[in-house]
């Protein structure tokens, strides 16, 4: 990648919270009972949470902040670590703790990405990557400003859509009805990952995707089409437009943590059939079914305005979690600056909660070139 702007110092950081293997999953036997139970659980989830917004009292509960380790305290890397990318040992051309707008070529187009290196980045340690996709009309830099993701001990790549793909001069990602045809954002993601892995020391088993609204919906497409490279996803206020169900056939179960406000007026929590938007509870429950999770999720009140629903007992340990902000709008939980219309909770911070979920997820070794099943999972990797 080439640099198009001078390095920009990262905004004042908050304390850091303490070849591909192509293929599809084999056909699975019918699971009518499981499907029915999951559908009932999803419908109940949507109804209960919307009911809570309509007037039911919400009990207060203390929510301990997730503890996220500082990458600087993690032992340095091992040259035998499975998943270390080709860029390990190569000095980066930007300073740790800075964000730089960079360019790459994908599909014959010049594309850009806002690339953030974490404080303490070293080229002898394999670092996780967080890919971030903005909402329609926003930018990578705009999402960086409100999301808090720079605080993570990870390489954070804030993608930029192509101008003019989201109505007029606005940028968007493929998969939405307003997205312009002819732009392959899945290929852009593949090219971006290839470039990052060539130029930086990346842990290829720990590549996560998040985003907001249209960008969050696009992460569901990535989970379906690039499950051999994307380890897990964390969509926020996702515009799902039918993505991920029912035609999604990932090569492996993909863990998901999803955030949504129950009073989101832009992407309604209860869905919008006229726009092809599913009810959020139905979509999350469908993903739990896809991952063969136990049909009865556990629902907890994790803050006075936050309910967390967890599906466990999933195939390959690919759990599914739904974080509902009661009365929340089209916003990023814990936003640092304006992220969308409606109420934004500060009871939780999305970047902290998602990292607690994502950080221990690893791509199975069969998708890592040269790896063996005897290899360990953590040597040489930043936490």
TrEMBL record:
Listed A to Z, the keywords are: Carbohydrate metabolism, Hydrolase, Polysaccharide degradation, Secreted, Signal, Xylan degradation
Q: Which GO terms describe its biological process?
A: xylan catabolic process
| Stretches the record annotates as Disordered | 1-33, 71-98
Reading the lineage from the top rank, the first entry is Bacteria
A single GO CC term, please?
extracellular region
In terms of Gene3D superfamilies, this protein maps to: alpha/beta hydrolase
Q: Does the keyword Glycosyltransferase apply?
A: no
* Subcellular location as annotated: Secreted
MF terms in GO:
feruloyl esterase activity
Q: Residue ranges under compositional bias (Low complexity)?
A: 1-28
Q: Which InterPro entries match?
A: AB_hydrolase_fold, FaeB/C/D
Protein name stated in the entry: Polyhydroxybutyrate depolymerase
Q: Which organism is it from?
A: Promicromonospora citrea
Q: Supply the source organism's classification.
A: Bacteria, Bacillati, Actinomycetota, Actinomycetes, Micrococcales
């Amino acid at each position: 990648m080439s640099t198009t702007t001078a390095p920009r110092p990262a905004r004042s950081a908050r304390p850091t919270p303490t070849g591909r293997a192509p293929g599809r999953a084999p056909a699975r036997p019918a699971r009518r009972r499981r499907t029915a139970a999951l559908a009932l659980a999803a419908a109940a989830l949507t109804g209960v949470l919307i009911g809570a917004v309509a007037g039911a009292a919400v009990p207060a509960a203390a929510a301990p902040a997730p503890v996220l380790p500082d990458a600087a305290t993690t032992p340095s890397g091992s040259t035998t670590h499975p998943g270390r990318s080709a860029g390990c040992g190569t000095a980066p051309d930007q300073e740790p703790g800075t964000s730089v707008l960079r360019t790459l070529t994908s599909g014959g187009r010049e594309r850009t990405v806002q690339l953030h290196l974490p404080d303490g980045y070293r080229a002898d340690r394999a670092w996780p990557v967080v890919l971030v996709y903005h909402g329609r009309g926003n930018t990578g830099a705009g999402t960086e400003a409100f999301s808090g993701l720079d605080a993570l001990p990870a390489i954070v790549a804030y993608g930029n859509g192509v101008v003019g793909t989201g109505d007029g001069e606005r940028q968007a990602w493929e998969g939405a009805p307003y997205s312009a045809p002819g732009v392959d954002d899945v290929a852009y993601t593949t090219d971006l990952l290839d470039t990052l892995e060539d130029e930086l020391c990346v842990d290829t088993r720990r590549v996560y995707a998040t985003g907001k609204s249209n960008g969050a919906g696009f992460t569901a497409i990535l989970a379906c089409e690039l499950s051999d490279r994307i380890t897990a996803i964390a969509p926020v206020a996702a515009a799902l437009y039918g993505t991920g169900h029912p035609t999604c056939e990932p090569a492996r179960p993909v863990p998901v943590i999803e955030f949504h406000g129950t009073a989101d007026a832009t992407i309604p929590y209860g869905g919008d059939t006229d726009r092809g938007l599913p009810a959020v509870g139905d979509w999350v429950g469908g993903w739990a079914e896809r991952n063969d999770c136990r049909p009865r999720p556990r629902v907890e009140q994790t803050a006075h305005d936050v309910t967390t629903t967890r599906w466990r007992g999933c195939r390959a340990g690919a759990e599914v979690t739904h974080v509902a902000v009661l009365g929340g709008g089209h916003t990023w939980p814990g936003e640092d600056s304006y992220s969308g219309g409606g109420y934004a909770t500060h009871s939780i911070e999305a970047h902290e909660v998602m990292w607690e979920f994502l950080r221990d997820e690893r791509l199975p070794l069969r998708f890592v070139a040269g790896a063996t099943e005897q290899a360990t999972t953590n040597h040489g990797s930043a936490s």
